[in-house]
Amino acid sequence: xxxxxxxxxxxxxxxxxxxxxxxxxxxxxxxxxxxxxxxxxxxxxxxxxxxxxxxxxxxxxxxxxxxxxxxxxxxxxxxxxxxxxxxxxxxxxxxxxxxxxxxxxxxxxxxxxxxxxxxxxxxxxxxxxxxxxxxxxxxxxxxxxxxxxxxxxxxxxxxxxxxxxxxxxxxxxxxxxxxxxxxxxxxxxxxxxxxxxxxxxxxxxx
Length: 206
Fold this sequence. Notes:
By secondary structure, the chain is an alpha+beta fold. The protein has helices at residues 2-43, 47-51, 54-65, 71-79, 88-107, 172-186, 191-203, and strands at residues 113-120, 132-140, 145-154, 160-167, 170-171.
């Protein structure tokens, strides 16, 4: 009888754990939905004004992403093994360059979205690890389609933050990591020169 009760208890424990984790997964999707809705309301629907005011556009994108993106952590991942070699000042500069350039160059692309055709898909099967993949389809005004996967990870403060992003099957985290590694090699492992090259590279993506 004791074995029966033990078995039932273990099954219930697994079910409760699975249920809690499922709720956590939905929390990741909810965080993405809030960001997407903010893009729709604060950016896309005001695109005529923002197209003429790029600084305001960058400020709005920054305000939206600040709730889900830790740019210092993102920069650490992009620098990879070179992060430990960098001074605190170089780390801060790299994070600032990455943030400011990405906001300016990629923020403008948000103006091309069709506000009525942004679809956050239901969560699909998830792999191992603590990252939750949230897929979103963005219809562009010119009829093009962006398939974006937001990789969300829960912080120690129980806040869902963006860990990585994949756009049309291009993993930006891995791509940026490789690109910065190449820039370090091309600049004889001089971090300051590599950061200058990194800034110029990002600016070309506008």
